[in-house]
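Example 9 (inverse folding). The structure is encoded as follows.
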C-alpha cells in the first residue's frame, strides 16, 4: 500500500487527472458484489503512470479546445475489449444501477485554492450503448443524432462527499462527516462516484458499453477526459 502515500506529497499545483478506477452494482445506495474495471486497466502499482489511464482531448500539443472528427472516444488501450489480468469486466443485470468510481485527485479538495481561476471540478456525462462500434469517434458518440447511444447521466464531477484525505478545509470537513464504509482500495480516501441506470430491456449475454466523459475547464482552455468500459449482462 506504500504507493498510495505518494499522493499526499505531491505539490498542490500538480493535479493528477482522473479516470474510472472501479465500477460496482449499486443497490439501495450500497456498493455490492465484485468490482468491474475499465478496458485496458492498469492498477495503481508502484510502476503505474498517470498516462496509463488518462486520455485527454484534445491531446497535448494540439490546438486547444478543438476536438477533431477523427478523435476516438477511447484511449488506444481501450479501443477493444481489452480486459487485463485482475481487472475483469463488470457483470450486472438489465435495469441495475451502476456506480462508476474515480478519485478526485485534488480537483475537489484543492480546486478552491487554485487562486483566482474560478475553476470548478467540472461535469461528467455518461453515455451508453448496447451497440458499440469499436471505431466510435468522440463526436459520433456524443452526437444527439446518434441513434445507438443514449445519455444516461449528466452530473457534477464533485459528488458532494468525496475527498482525498489531505489538510485542506474541504477535505477535513468531509472527513469529519458520517460516511459509507471505505473500500479497501480507497484506504483513507473516499472516492467520488456517479451512478447510472442500465436500460431494462438488455438480454443476458449482451454487452453494454459505457463512456465516462469528464469535461474539465482549465484557465482559458477546455479539456475532456474519457474512460471506456463495458458491462456484461447476466441473468
Ligand atoms: C491492453 O491494455 C494494456 C494496459 O493498458 C496495454 O498495455 C495494451 O497495449 C492493451 N492492448 C491492446 C490490444 O490495446
Ligand atoms: C472570478 O470570479 C470573480 C467573481 O465572479 C470575478 O470577479 C473574477 O474576475 C473572476 N476571475 C477570473 C480569472 O475569471
Ligand atoms: C467549459 O467552458 C465552455 C466555454 O466557455 C463552456 O461552454 C462549458 O460549459 C464549460 N464546461 C464546464 C464543465 O465548466
Ligand atoms: C446495431 O446497429 C445495427 C446497424 O449498425 C442495427 O442493424 C442493429 O439493429 C443494432 N442493434 C441494436 C441492439 O441496437
Ligand atoms: C436516427 O433515427 C431517425 C428517426 O428514425 C432517422 O431519421 C435518422 O436518419 C437516424 N440517424 C442516423 C444517423 O441514422
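The amino acid assigned to each position is listed next.
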Amino acid at each position: 500500500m506504500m504507493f498510495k502515500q505518494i499522493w499526499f506529497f505531491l505539490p498542490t499545483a500538480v493535479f493528477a487527472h482522473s479516470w474510472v478506477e472501479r465500477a460496482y452494482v449499486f443497490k439501495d445506495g450500497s456498493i455490492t458484489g465484485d468490482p468491474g474495471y475499465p478496458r485496458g486497466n492498469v492498477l495503481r502499482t508502484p510502476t503505474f503512470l498517470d498516462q496509463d489511464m488518462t486520455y485527454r482531448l484534445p491531446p497535448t500539443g494540439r490546438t486547444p479546445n478543438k476536438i477533431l472528427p477523427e478523435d476516438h472516444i477511447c484511449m488506444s488501450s481501450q479501443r477493444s475489449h481489452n480486459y487485463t489480468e485482475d481487472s475483469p469486466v463488470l457483470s450486472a443485470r438489465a435495469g441495475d444501477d451502476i456506480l462508476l468510481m474515480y478519485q478526485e485527485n485534488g480537483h475537489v479538495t484543492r480546486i478552491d485554492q487554485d487562486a483566482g481561476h474560478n475553476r470548478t471540478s467540472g461535469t461528467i456525462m455518461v453515455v451508453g450503448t448496447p451497440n458499440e462500434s469499436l471505431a466510435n469517434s468522440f463526436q459520433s458518440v456524443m452526437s444527439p443524432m446518434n441513434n445507438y447511444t443514449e445519455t444516461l447521466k449528466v452530473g457534477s464531477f464533485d459528488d458532494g462527499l468525496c475527498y482525498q484525505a489531505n489538510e485542506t478545509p474541504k477535505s477535513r470537513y468531509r472527513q469529519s462527516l458520517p460516511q459509507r464504509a471505505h473500500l479497501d482500495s480507497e484506504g483513507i480516501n473516499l472516492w467520488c462516484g456517479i451512478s447510472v441506470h442500465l436500460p431494462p430491456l438488455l438480454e443476458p449475454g449482451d454487452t453494454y458499453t459505457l463512456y465516462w466523459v469528464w469535461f474539465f475547464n482549465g484557465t482559458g482552455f477546455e479539456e475532456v477526459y474519457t474512460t471506456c468500459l463495458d458491462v456484461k449482462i447476466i441473468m
